[in-house]
Amino acid sequence: MRQFNRQSRSGRIMLAVGLGALVLGASGCTRIRTHQGYQVDKLLVDSVQPGVDNRASVEGTLGRPSFVSQFGPQDWYYVSRDMRSLAFANPRPVSQTILHVRFDAAGNVVAVDRMGLEQVARISPAGSKTPTLGRHRSLFDEIFGNIGAVGAGGMGGGGSGPNGGGPNGS
User: Fold this and answer.
1) Above 60 in pLDDT, residue 124?
2) Using CA atoms, how far apart are residues 117 and 63, in angstroms rounded to an integer?
3) Residues 6 or more apart from 19 whose CB is under 8 A from it?
4) Total domains present in the chain
5) Which residues form a coiled coil (predicted)?
């Protein structure tokens, strides 16, 4: 009877270890969701009105922008993005909101624009090489291409002085 108890206890331990390993292994395949940037509150965003609000009221309502236009302080941007990925895969955007607040010279709101995922550029690389413009040179052209180019006419070689001598005329 005592031997049966030891076997059942070791069986339970092995079962617990097996279940623990299964849970850890399955957790590597879970979806990972992340949020980057500004937390969009639709009610606050809708409260910003062109012709009514100014820079101070927009900053008081929405907070500081994610970034300001580099070509003058007339444009403020609030960027929000939700990403999703599997454990080791590259993350991809699920939703995105870019709130673009435009101001006039006096600092009053002129327009509030919203953009979404339609503005995300999808870039797919073409293989392992980047296409470039210009000459296509082989390895041997790169290595031996300068042979004969050194000392070409007008490149500072000897024999250019008077009497056919060097630069001092000797």
Assistant:
1) yes
2) 23
3) none
4) 1
5) none
Global pTM value? 0.55
Query: By C-alpha distance, which of 42, 32, 122 is closest to 80?
Result: 42
The amino acid present at 26, given as its one-letter code, is A
Both tokens of residue 29? 């395949």
Q: Is 158 exposed, middle or buried (0-12, 13-18, 19+ CB in 10 A)?
A: exposed
- The single-letter code of the amino acid at 134 is G
In a domain, 82, yes or no: yes
CA 64 to CA 115: how far, in whole Å? Answer: 19
143 within a domain of the structure (yes/no): no
Percent of the chain with pLDDT over 90: 3
For 75-89, b where at least 16 C-beta lie within 10 A, e where not — what string?
A: bbbbbbbebeeeeee
103 neighbors 110 (Cβ within 8 angstroms): yes
Strands (E), 28-153: 32-37, 67-68, 75-85, 92-103, 109-115
Q: Look at strands 75-85 and 92-103 and give their pairing.
A: antiparallel
Q: Domain of 56?
A: 31-119
Which amino acid, residue 143?
Answer: I
pLDDT digits (tens, 9 = 90+) for 47-81: 888 988 888 998 898 889 888 888 877 889 999 88
